[in-house]
Amino acid sequence: MSMKPLEFDRRYGELDVVVSAFVGQDPSVTEETPPPALEAYLRHTWHTRPWALSVAEQQLREYARNPPGRLRLRLGEFYPVPDVGLPEAGTQSWLFEMADHIKRSIESGDVPPPATPRTHWEWHARFGELGQFLGGWFSQDMPDEFADHDAAVQDYKASTDPQLVARLVGEIHELLALDLDDHEYVMGVAELGMEMEPPAPLSVGAWLESVAEHLAVARPDYGQER
């Protein structure tokens, strides 16, 4: 029978995060330097969930020591490692190598400095609500759903919990604090799901700043009179 969510998280939850960081990335590894996808995972996790690093190291190593057979995978009793472009025969040693890199990072205590995201996974891990906003309200279907950019922003504000709106405002300010050039902002919002140009004549950065200013305005309180 398939694993229940709690069992999956206990045994494979952080392993799944690590491997997901490699989807679409080069899994090649050397003994000295972690691959870029693992560097992205380490950088984000050190700054957000440092306790999860030891969990990842343990789960990677345990899975590599006890790889499941085909039957148990088919029955859903084990986690099937997503295909990251490795030959099946090399997956076990690759998992051990990833675990070794994570262990060295923990033992050295060398926290990677904050940096611009380098992978698709890192963009979405760091700017989760911004990805929801851009991918959900500014896909290529936006002109069919809203009169213009302002109408889409207003719909997001009206239909989203205020706490998530506040989170989005914070993520926009964090993105702007990276101080990227226009081309880099274009690439960043594209990674996060935006398929529309900002309204003329604004650049992506200027438009995001205007969105944050609009969303930061507090909603009026229409509660009942006491």
Distance between the termini: 55 Å
Helix/strand/pairing category: mainly alpha
Average pLDDT number:
89
* Tertiary shape: elongated
**In sequence order, what are the helices and strands, one letter per element?**
HHHHHHHHHHHH
Instruction: State the helicity in percent bands.
Output: 55-70%
Q: What fraction of the residues are assigned to beta strands by DSSP?
A: under 5%
* Rg for CA atoms: 21 Å
Characterize the main sheet. Answer: none
pLDDT < 50 stretches = none
Helix count, DSSP H or I runs of 4 or more residues: 12
Number of domains: 2
DSSP, total strands: 0
Structural overview:
The protein is mostly helical and 226 residues long. The protein folds into 2 domains: 5-108, no CATH class; 127-215, no CATH class. The chain is 60% helix and 0% strand. It is built from 12 helices and no strands. Helix 2 runs parallel beside helix 6, helix 3 packs antiparallel against helix 5 (91-108) and helix 7 packs across helix 10 (162-176). It is elongated and about 55 Å long. The protein starts with a helix and ends in an 11-residue tail after the last helix. The mean pLDDT is 89.
Any descriptors?
mainly alpha, 2 domains, 12 helices, 60% helix, elongated
Blueprint (SSEs and pairs):
Layout: H1 5-20, H2 36-48, H3 52-65, H4 70-74, H5 91-108, H6 120-126, H7 128-137, H8 142-145, H9 149-159, H10 162-176, H11 182-191, H12 204-215
Describe this structure in a few short sentences.
The protein is mainly alpha-helical and 226 residues long. It has helices spanning 5-20, 36-48, 52-65, 70-74, 91-108, 120-126, 128-137, 142-145, 149-159, 162-176, 182-191, 204-215.
